[in-house]
């Protein structure tokens, strides 16, 4: 259990954090969402001891977080901290030794991670010769090499191609399935929605919404009716609530209120109904609404 309780932090005249609180449970993936400068990185740096809060506390297993606790954490900062001249395998192994692994254990963990993260063909390449995506994979390996008790990742998906995203997402799920709590920040809200057990939305240093995606959608309480009709005559939806857009020979009606049965009858009379159903807002839509 990792508890972030009422964190506050100012940098001169700027309030970076204004009472941020949330809890991370074993095996939980927590998606941390916010615009640039909202406070995500500051929160993560305080958890890792890079910054000190002005007030508030971080607790682990029910007690104040200690430097010894932090040594068991895995951290992937947004600004990558790799040694550019070192080769991939020796880099990962080196960080494993820094975390206290013996030489044999560090080599074994390095070999496993290189294989899992698709770096086998790059194991002897210098970091500076790698693409951004492969450098991200190495950075993740560095965060995982000592089998961390908690995993904290700041924008880990930034700049990755779809295959690398899938690989990284799979690793995060594996870590959570083994009981490791995971915090990650990302601007890719569809990815956050897909991966996260719970989500925190932060704006201007304040946590303005948190909970599971389902809880956030239920709290919003808004659903939209989507109707797709092919071969409909023009103006079939005149007088109905919502907006109609065209997609080829199909017309799509999106309505947030109105009599669903009346809309369905009108659609059936207009043409062939290919889709009729209620949709919950996406996390991206929720984010825009609560931030606005």
UniProtKB/TrEMBL annotation:
It is found in: Cell membrane. One of its GO terms (cellular component) is plasma membrane. Residues 2-229 form the ABC transporter domain. PROSITE patterns: ABC_TRANSPORTER_1 (PS00211), ABC_TRANSPORTER_2 (PS50893). Its main location: membrane. The keyword Heme does not apply. GO terms for molecular function: ATP binding; ATP hydrolysis activity. It is a peripheral membrane protein. One of its GO terms (biological process) is response to antibiotic. The keyword ATP-binding applies. InterPro entries: AAA+_ATPase, ABC_transporter-like_ATP-bd, ABC_transporter-like_CS, ABC_transporter_ATP-binding, DrrA1/2-like_C, P-loop_NTPase. Gene3D superfamilies: P-loop containing nucleotide triphosphate hydrolases. Keywords: Antibiotic resistance, ATP-binding, Nucleotide-binding, Transport. Belongs to the ABC transporter superfamily. This is ABC transporter related protein. The lineage of its organism: Bacteria, Bacillati, Actinomycetota, Actinomycetes, Streptosporangiales.
């Amino acid at each position: 259990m990792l508890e972030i309780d009422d964190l506050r932090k100012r940098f001169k005249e700027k309030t970076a954090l204004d009472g941020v609180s949330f809890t991370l449970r074993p095996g939980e993936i927590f998606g941390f969402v916010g615009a640039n400068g909202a406070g995500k990185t500051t929160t993560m740096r305080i958890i890792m001891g890079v910054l000190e809060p002005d007030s508030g506390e971080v607790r682990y297993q029910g007690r104040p977080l200690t430097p010894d606790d932090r040594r068991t954490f895995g951290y992937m900062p947004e600004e990558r901290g790799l040694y550019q001249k070192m080769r991939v395998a020796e880099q990962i192994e080196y960080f494993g030794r820094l975390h206290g692994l013996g030489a044999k254990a560090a080599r074994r963990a390095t070999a496993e991670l290189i294989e899992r993260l698709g770096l086998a063909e790059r194991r002897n390449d210098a970091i500076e010769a790698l693409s951004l995506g492969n450098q991200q994979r190495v950075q993740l390996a560095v965060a995982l090499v000592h089998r961390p008790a908690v995993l904290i990742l700041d924008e880990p998906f930034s700049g990755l191609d779809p295959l690398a995203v899938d690989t990284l997402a799979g690793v995060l799920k594996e870590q959570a399935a083994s009981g490791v709590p995971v915090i990650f920040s990302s601007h890719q809200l569809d990815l956050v929605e897909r991966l996260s057990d719970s989500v925190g939305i932060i704006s201007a240093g304040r946590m303005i919404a948190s909970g599971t995606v389902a809880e956030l959608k239920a709290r919003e309480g808004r659903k939209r009716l989507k109707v797709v009709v092919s071969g409909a005559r023009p103006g079939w939806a005149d007088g109905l609530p919502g907006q109609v857009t065209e997609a080829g020979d199909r017309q799509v009606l999106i309505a947030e209120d109105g009599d669903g049965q009346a809309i369905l009858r009108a659609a059936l009379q207009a043409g062939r109904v290919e889709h009729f159903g209620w949709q919950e807002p996406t996390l991206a839509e929720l984010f825009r609404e609560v931030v606005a």
